[in-house]
Automatic annotation (TrEMBL):
Name assigned to this protein: RsmD family RNA methyltransferase
Family annotation (CDD domains): AdoMet_MTases
Keyword Methyltransferase: yes
Keywords: Methyltransferase, Transferase
Classification via Pfam families: Cons_hypoth95
GO molecular function: methyltransferase activity; nucleic acid binding
Species annotation: Oribacterium asaccharolyticum ACB7
Length: 188
């Protein structure tokens, strides 16, 4: 796995050992970043369920201002830190060890406003939906924040409409999909 474009272009990234992480394939990552290219320049990025940190690192390489990486697996945290050191993005980054609830609680005491939030949780456990519900009323996200969820093909995010999100688009691949969401505006 490597950084595709930007200042860290062609740098190889380490991935955590084991089957618990599914690094986003380069082809899919390139498609994703072509879609969101205008949503990341000079923005703060949150990479929840970060795994190797590849999505947040790609965003930094392409011009994001800062990134926060969160994962609950110790192996993933060590991998993220090694990848940040290698790509020289350590000073622009914060790495939080723990689950998404702990990360969200920690971020409420920090000075971030995220323009982009990546979520690539284990499929089929509704973790992305739970994280979206927890995030929706936090001061560090807004109607301008783009939420990008990588999910299994069978996962249905239509219930997020009732939770205050608009589904902007779904990009379907052979084995998974990306769901793009934003918070709905206030009515009235």
């Amino acid at each position: 796995m490597r950084v595709i474009a930007g200042t860290a272009r062609r740098m190889n990234l380490k991935t955590p050992d084991g089957l618990d992480t599914r690094p986003t394939q380069d082809r899919i990552k390139e498609t994703l970043f072509n879609i969101i290219q205008f949503d990341l320049m000079n923005k703060d990025v949150l990479d929840l369920f970060a795994g190797s940190g590849a999505l947040g690192i790609e965003a930094l390489s392409r011009g994001a201002a800062r990134a926060v990486f969160c994962d609950s697996a110790r192996q993933a945290i060590l991998c993220i830190e090694e990848n940040l050191q290698k790509t020289h993005f350590k000073e622009q980054s914060l790495v939080l060890s723990g689950d998404y609830n702990g990360a969200i609680n920690s971020l409420m005491r920090k000075d971030y406003h995220f323009g982009l939030v990546f979520m690539d949780p284990p499929y089929g456990r509704e973790l992305a939906e739970k994280a979206l519900i927890r995030l929706k009323d936090k001061a560090f996200v807004s109607q301008d924040t783009l939420f990008v969820v990588e999910a299994g093909l069978q996962e249905d995010f239509s219930g997020m409409e009732e939770e205050g999100y608009s589904i902007l688009r779904e990009k379907i691949y052979k084995t998974n999909k990306h769901v793009f969401l934003r918070l709905k505006g206030e009515i009235g």
